């Protein structure tokens, strides 16, 4: 951002209690309230691509609500004041059609392109994983080509079609590969686990250009080892991170559409993300928070914290 | 049914505890297990037409689970043994596409037509209210023309389109009227309440052929008075009853997609239904049970009981 | 109680906040802390007689917890200070065998007889309805013969056996009748509703000496009319009231084992109970609170309030 | 409002799905977005005056969240388009000190006075009932003297002190009376029920100038009769309505701090409010929504609907 | 199974959405639908042996419901298609008396013996741990002698009696030892933790022939080390695995009767089970799922996944 | 304790089922029932110092309720029978003013001093963390000077003021340091994590005399290493342990006021505590259990178990 302006800060928790005040993410200013914006938080409340438990349409508002509680001034793990070194703002929601997946994808693509014309990076709160496809399209447009993709998820999300539908929450990365939206030599799944629909799933997936860090590997590898494998894979490429909250164990994130046991802890994912500081993170999404299945804001709080970590990574991006 | 056969009964609660045994509605036989069938219970787990809280796709299984607890041998209000005078069976679910409303509607229509070729009547468990349209089409085909329609709901469900979509859970009865699927001089809304999208809503609705018993009228009318108004309206026409569970007050049915306060009690709806004994009920549906928002099976138990009452009305149909 | 003593009062809410202090019912003194006791509250945490949802074993503690919130000094409907005109105390729980119904019944009978030797009346918190049988035995012993029985319940609880078991929560009043524990010309069911196991249920029940006020009658009768029918039936006989919390609608009491829709409201039951002031209430029970299915202490608060109303009726007993 | 301007409308549910878009009440414009404002919705997230279950600090955000679902264009009971005949906007929250009741009361008074200088009326979402005192002070200042007060509540809230504290959620109306903030010949409690702390409670209360419609009277009176008694009492005086959500039965409003069984239904309160159309409603509050104890947004939806009804009454105010 | 037949597969999730279709485990065929059966899933809904929180009687149906979501075609950890190499089917529930533990045990023994005459192996879903005793008897009969027993549990379940009852959920393995149902030199507890009833508990337990892997050892040992200890202990003996779901930490399995903190994660137990591939698993049970205490199907999903893992182990059994 | 007396034991779970009997912690005797007391469990139900989610006022009763389930006779990790080698009793609650933090702090200080005159040690159940200050004052008085302080928490709790309030749940340890209540060369935070309010937070904290074991270090250090660092730090000084339950991950302790993801597991904290056996633990507290946000007693059970572990440490104190 221009060095003349001091970023507008979130409402302070010492003046307005955290349970009061604006409903923006972390009580940040709205996008319309800032002159320039480095990072925008945007909601995409869409879940018509869900195959099992729906409800991620309520994800953005619940993650914003949980984000009230974040203490955000200074992050010691990144040694940065993420809202001081860059202007962060809440861009509201991209409205999209709940009854027509194709139209919704167009609306998300259009909305995110328009937003990326105004801001440097976006961190999107889903919605189901269908939305990753139009978001990747917009990011490619912004960056001028494909990105390294790091995909945290219990599931591969690289099926071909589901009930004949090419665009659902189980297929975005196959479509993205077909459209060459990510670098096939610099992308990764992290946290994959569980049985598969077919013996071909993993093979197909490898052919799409992914390497995988299986969730079980967190049982035998240190975080440092895992971080190194990710960094080696992504290199210096511009990076997009897509996080399906079901990469977390259901104990840590019950409020999601297709929970899968034996997942990551929040401590593991935060430490992996912190290891990625220094990468060139161009944008990111956090998807599949379904609040109707949440309890005590467990899942929303995890997602809000992850969004905040992503903002910190961007704050530490190399210039 | 042929008088040679004795109907196969539900599994007895004195032999197999109610929490055990088959997961069919009321632990009835499956359709494939009976030679002839008078009334089939069928699930339509579809909720892609939902505008607010999704989750009615889990309605059929949750209503079946709650129906385990029903004591079903003899209903004193109808003075009938509904599973002795007719064969009732569970026909399972009609599978339909979660990602394509148009295809799903075709699947529901096809599935229910095929079912009605095998059985006398169906009582359908939704799913969202979108499904009422293909069900009415099938019933028209079965009956050979339009039916009297009694529609219990907090909302009119006669909007034109929503987000450009003609087929959603807010529009089935406008489409049905356009297709002349119900008798415009013998149909009724019951339980309507709350503010409206437009001053034209009620006017438009009347032009579609509905009369309305507003929910507030239960505060000033006796059940007998209300029953009389309904019976006068429907006459001797073949009758279809469509019950959106949100006609009940949220205190009685929290687990639904668009709850509206100031609704009916379960005692009121059961007494109204019992008043309709002697009508010619050809089929019925109970929709919009969204278990993710339910508590202690409140909503599912209400819906299961209502399904059972409908079976009793059919058992008392004039020959 | 002897007129020399002033009753020991519950802990005052103006000195110790209601969420603090002793866990006795309404923060009353323990039985061991008073010299004489007119009314004892006693828990019977037993649920091995449950046919569907178990968990009433946690009823006594949850009702006591909910009772913390009761404001109890003066009851304007009875115009009495129920803890000033009589000594009320909490007698703790009667421990009983969770694995052997027969032994548990003996323990409950023994425990309640011993308690009734020390106190004037007991109000028992269940536990499932199985416990009404040994309690009636003890009351008969105390009173010297059968009592008028007013039974609030969704279900008759007069089956013969269930899985061959003569003592379960569905059979206590058939056993009680066989043992002539209540007056067959002065007893009543109130709130009965729903379908039945057999066409004989109601007939059998009448032969056992019950009259019934069906729950639907609350839709057409005033409370005064219903109270009058009850009072006419019970006359001046010593009265035992047994209240299955499922007499309430599940909206008012979700936390119970066999919920039945179309039930009474809490406003209806409280007004009926208040109408019974002036009867000779010798003891009472409130059963079938299953907290695992409760929400926000709805059911426990209803039960605690009902226990408190019963204490007020006893306070107003004719001398 | 000036007749030159057309009021800015809430975001339309046919363009932006109701689960998306701004988090203001009913997705209304923010106060800063309108030039003139007739009615402002304002949150007062304060609960340090709570004696039992805390958590009403989360009331404003949860009521706003539930208000997303309201269909608001036209209210047939009032025959008015409440957002067309007046400008309504969301004024956000009045921040107040969670640790110091006295300072918080000053902040609420100051904040509401400032707000009332800008807008015609306010409808406040609490917070606990402590806030009614500073709100009444501000209204008196706005109106230029005391108002008729209609107070819906299970409890009198006219105690003197509690733990020595003069300002808590149990005392606002005694303080208000001492400060002569309401007309002692035109004020009323509605929905009072339950036992009392002392035999003097009702007597004291009458001396403060209240008449009471006991909740049990809804069992024996028609809504019309009750409305008439209220209207006769308030006359043509400027009216302030204060609604403690616990006036509703816990079945209808479990999410509150001191639930009391045997309460009003939502159908009853809405019908009473609708009867008050034509009064001169100057401002109002809805308090004591404690979302941690709510389920499926039952309580928040009831409160949001009541806020909307109050807006309609103001829309119908005589000029 | 005979190599002529191709196993009947579960209903495909690409034809019938997972929330629809049959309620059998993983939507497998019913036992009556297959000619031969290698592995049967069977429910034993019995919880009268429970000492604290009851409700495991609802375990089988809730585990089946959660199993809908399993993707089951191919398990990469075992490199097997478990439903292709063997016929798996759902055998329904064994009905047993809820009021008489002794009779229930006989019914379970009889039911499982009859089932094992028809199928190769059974994986039983409880029900409380009482059922392990009759199941072990049946397995002994099938195998022709005692088996190696691997018992995952927070508790030893080797008490002598409880309230005089020899058969409860705390005693099955002491009874089993007395009946010599397992090999005292090849059996193990895994996951034991927490304080004990007596200093003798562990000593007694060792005398019964158990070795123990304490849950804390997962903090200091690798999964490989633990697997090796188990495999060394069981040798090549026919193996029975009994899994009390409370071996998991309550964060992973809240829905159980006697939760004990500091437990295993789902990732740990799945990895241990996968390490046991190659053993001769003859049958297994998963018990103590009490859905009333579950949230978002956390516990049921864990149990369903474990059942599926056990099916995979059997699929990999040495011939 | 004097060696003449045998300690009075908790009510035995083999005589009175655990869900029955007294509501004291672990069903221990009340303090008034024992002649001498080594360790008293005391509740301080106070939460007016809470900045986000309130409700810890219900902590003591919910922890006591969860403690019913503890098996307590013998703890193998400590090899001690903690209720045999010392008399432990429940001292009830210290009543304190919910509306006045200053008065409440005085009441807690006075109450705990009086209690410590009667008993050797106290283990306090909160209540919010505000209470640690008056408790430390009392302990200093008892011990005759400052103590080593081991503070388990997600947060530093060493802010200066919050909304001008010097005494809140975020400030106790700054006040304690100012009053020199703990040894600045022997105190530690454990489990700290998450972003901070300011870059100065950690620096200020170090100046107050704390060293910190960050929660992430549990990812890279063994429990033994961590225990050694703690023991080295505290030396042989008298030790006070203050445990904010939010030191646990929200998956393990959802029911708290300011949850912070990426926390400790219950297995980790229990193993650390067990490592501290042999220290000179003079007293301890467990705070911030907010049951309204708990599920299935997860948090209360964790807290109850931790209280029990602390009793075991005291039982193993060097003489």
- Biggest sheet details of chain A: 8 strands, parallel
- Helices and strands of chain A: which structural class? alpha/beta
Architecture of chain A in CATH? Answer: 3-Layer(aba) Sandwich
Oligomer: homohexamer
Present the secondary structure layout:
Six copies of one chain form a homohexamer.
Chain A: E1 37-44, H1 59-67, E2 88-93, H2 101-118, E3 119-126, H3 132-143, E4 148-152, H4 172-178, E5 187-192, H5 200-207, E6 210-214, H6 217-220, H7 223-234, E7 238-244, H8 266-275, E8 280-287, H9 298-315
Parallel strand pairs in A: 1-2, 1-3, 3-8, 4-5, 4-7, 5-6, 7-8
Short description:
The structure is a homohexamer of 319-residue chains. Chain A is built from nine helices and eight strands. Chain A is an alpha/beta fold.
Structure description:
6 copies of one chain form a homohexamer. Chain A is of the alpha/beta class. Chain A is built from 9 helices and 8 strands. Chain A has helices at 59-67, 101-118, 132-143, 172-178, 200-207, 217-220, 223-234, 266-275, 298-315; strands at residues 37-44, 88-93, 119-126, 148-152, 187-192, 210-214, 238-244, 280-287. The first copy, chain A, has an 8-stranded parallel β-sheet, with helices on both faces.
Name the features:
17% strand; Arginase, Chain A; 319 residues; globular; alpha/beta
């Amino acid at each position: 951002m221009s060095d003349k302006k001091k970023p507008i800060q979130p409402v302070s928790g010492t003046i307005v209690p955290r349970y009061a005040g604006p409903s923006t993410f972390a009580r940040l200013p709205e996008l319309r309230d800032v002159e320039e914006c480095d990072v925008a938080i945007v909601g995409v409340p869409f879940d018509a691509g869900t195959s099992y438990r729906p409800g991620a349409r309520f994800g953005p508002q619940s993650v914003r609500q949980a984000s009230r509680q974040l203490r955000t001034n200074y992050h010691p793990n990144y040694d940065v004041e993420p809202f001081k070194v860059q202007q962060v703002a809440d861009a509201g929601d991209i409205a999209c059609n709940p009854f027509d997946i194709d139209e919704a994808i167009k609306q998300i693509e259009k909305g995110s392109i328009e937003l990326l014309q105004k801001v440097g990076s976006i961190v999107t709160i889903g919605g189901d994983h269908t939305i990753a496809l139009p978001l990747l399209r917009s990011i490619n447009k912004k960056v001028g080509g494909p990105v390294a993709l790091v995909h945290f998820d219990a599931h591969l999300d690289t099926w071909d079609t589901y009930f004949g539908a090419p665009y659902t929450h189980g297929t975005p990365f196959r479509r993205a590969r077909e459209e060459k939206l990510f670098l096939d030599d610099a992308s990764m799944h992290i946290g994959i686990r569980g049985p598969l629909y077919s013996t071909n799933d993993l093979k197909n997936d490898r052919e799409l250009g992914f390497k995988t860090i299986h969730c079980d590997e967190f049982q035998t590898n240190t975080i440092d080892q895992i971080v190194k494998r990710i960094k080696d894979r992504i290199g210096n490429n511009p990076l997009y991170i897509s996080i399906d909250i079901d990469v977390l164990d259901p104990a840590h994130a019950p409020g999601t559409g297709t929970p899968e046991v034996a997942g990551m802890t929040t401590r593991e994912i935060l430490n992996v993300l912190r290891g990625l500081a220094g990468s060139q993170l161009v944008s990111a999404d956090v998807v599949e928070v379904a609040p109707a299945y949440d309890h005590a804001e467990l899942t929303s709080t995890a997602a809000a914290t992850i969004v905040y970590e992503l903002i910190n990574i961007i704050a530490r991006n190399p210039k």
